[in-house]
SET domain-containing protein
Amino acid sequence: MSAPTRLYIVRKSPVHGNGVFAATDIPKGTRIIEYKGELITHDEADDRHPTNPDDPFHTFFFALDDGLHVIDAGVRGNPARWINHCCAPNCETEEVDDARGKPHVYIYAKRNIKAGEELNYDYRLGLDGRPTKQDKLNYECRCGARNCRHTMLLLPKPKAPAKKAAAQKTAAKKTGTAGKAAK
């Protein structure tokens, strides 16, 4: 019986620091790796110093959907902590609770990934309140994707101006001013 093929390798990334790269072609839907580390509360995460004090916005925290817990891959973590952010990711994450209720985070291939491609997912980082210009710079994205939002933060959706224009058009039709020049 042959050994399973290793799906990834860790090496220097052109995006940021270390990165995780496909060691072989990876089909869409493949579970690649679990994001491992110490399970802590958000309060504990807030109290922990960054891994690198010179880069305080770089951590190995993965905030869970329950809003209460964080996985700190800086403690007992694995290579998943080196997967970089991308605004047009080739991977996605899924949270699953085991039979005992312990949360696990798995990284899956979102599409077919070619050997040599860097693995990435959208971090969708959240902050309390509306992100400031400085917040966006602190969490700058370097992915280079065509649709890059230039930050790893999850930004609020802009209000669609089309709705306002459509409402004005509807109101104009009701008042009989649609398509008429103002006098």
